Structures are given as C-alpha cells and as structure tokens.
Amino acid sequence: MSPNIEGDVKSCCATLYESDLARMLLGDSFHPGGLRLTQRLGEKLGLRSGIRVLDIASGKGESAIFLARTFGCEVVGIDFSLENVNQATVRVEAAKVAHLVSFRRGDAEKIAFPDASFDALICECAFCTFPDKRAAATEFARVLKPGGRVGLSDLTRAATLPPELTGLLAWIACIADARPVEEYSEYLESAGMREIEIEPHDEALAEMVRDIQGKLLGAELMSKLKNLDLEGIDFAQAKTLARAAADAVRAKTLGYAIVVAQR
Ligand SMILES: C[S@@+](CC[C@H](N)C(=O)[O-])C[C@H]1O[C@@H](n2cnc3c(N)ncnc32)[C@H](O)[C@@H]1O
Predict the structure, then answer these.
(1) Which terminus in the chain has less CB density within 10 A, N or C?
(2) Pocket, ligand 1, Cβ cutoff 6 A
(3) DSSP characters for 126-174?
C-alpha cells in the first residue's frame, strides 16, 4: 500500500469513529464485548495500582477510564483522531480520574514514547485497521519494559471475505483487513514477544452485529417517520455491510479474539 493510501485509511478510520453515527451504532465503547472484554483483558494483563499502561487507539477514552477505575493503574491513551483525544480528555475530567488517565494524539505505527516506557499495553479492535501491522507490533514491543505484557482484542477472519466485506466502508469499519488470529500472534512473536495466549470471543462479535442491525433499522425508521436527513447516511449500504457481517460471523469466517503476550 502506498504511503498516501495508508494515510487515507488511518484518517478515514479516525473520522468514522469520531462521528455521531459511530456513537449511535456502537455507544462509547467501540469494540465487541464492550467493557466486559476490557475487564477480561485487564485481568489477563494483571493490571493493578502502580502499573503504567498504554492504550493504543484509545477512541473516546471509555476503556482507559474504566481500567484506571477498576484496577487503579495509570493509563495513557493515544489515538490518530484529535477529535477523539479531545473528547476523551473532557471525559477524564468529568470522571475525576485526571490523576491517572491522559490522552494525546498519536500513531500506533510510530509511537512517540521512549523505549521501555510502559508495563502493559492494550489495543482493542484497532490492530486490524493498521496498514503496517508489523511496524505497529514492533513499536508495541519497543515501548514495553522487559517482562511487560501486551493484550490485543480484535476481529479475526478464517477465510477469504465476501466482496461486500472488502470495500472502503468495510475497511474503515475494521473488517476488510482482519486477519487469521495466528497472523496476529505471528506479528507479536516476530517483534520479540513470547508466551502468546489466544482466547476466542466470537459470541461478542455476533452480539454486536445483531445490536447494530437493530439500531440501523430503528434509525432508518425514525428518519423516514420524521423525514430527517441523518448526515447523509446510506442505510442500504450500511445494512448490506451489516447483513454480510452477520452471515460471515454465523459461517465462522469472521470472529473476535483476545491475544495476550509478554515481552
Ligand atoms: C474501532 S475504534 C476502537 C476504539 C477503542 N479502542 C475502543 O475499543 O473503544 C478504532 C480507533 O482506532 C483509531 N486509529 C485508527 N488508526 C490508528 C493509528 N494508526 N494509530 C492510532 N489510532 C488509530 C481510530 O481513530 C479509532 O478511534
């Protein structure tokens, strides 16, 4: 992929997840399993007070704030979208956890922190969107202290995806470049990580897709009843994507998994 296209993909992804549409369809936690899976990730990483965690692609800050409150750890979140970073910062103040949590703009493929800055790193539902996954995995290992742990949760795919799931909308909705879970562990292993553990959570994705389908129908109905133009949303395209995703989850072509490893 050329550098220009890579930049476009990151910006498109960031813009989609800044939007009111994303909030309407996904709420504030932009990944399957919501905070239940974030808690699971926190437990698997052994988070606790005194630990410094980097949340890569922290979105609107929901997980970072939750982890700090639940485990008492310090969390720094980075996200490609400045808008998300600003919104997350406002939420930190409201949640009164500014002594533990902060956000800044950043790119997972070029993390602006020195080597060995963190005890743990999480990346939820975003690794699959990074155009250069190998560079991101190398950066994850670099910023972790020796013995530090990384926890990804991400979309996985088991076979070639149908054409409806490979267009630009599918890409920025995190589907098109999902990889087999073994490929994610291979990236971590090549970056020097070991003791890799994989935990499947396909049910969380099935639940999220059902929820999105319900919300899309509700929003379309509302827009028809009230004659609203909802930010020019193409409901037909969104419903086709959601239906194709539901079929792929049922066929086990698409799934969701947690991958944990140690540096
Ligand atoms: C599906 S959302 C996940 C957000 C958050 N992790 C969560 O689970 O709620 C994907 C996020 O990745 C961010 N993103 C995309 N490419 C990125 C990159 N190269 N570096 C950092 N953040 C990125 C987007 O701005 C967006 O907030």
Answers:
(1) N
(2) 10, 13-14, 17, 29-31, 57-59, 62-63, 78-81, 84, 106-109, 124-126, 129-130, 174
(3) -GGG-S-HHHHHHHHHHHEEEEEEEEEEEEEESSPPPGGGSSHHHHHTT
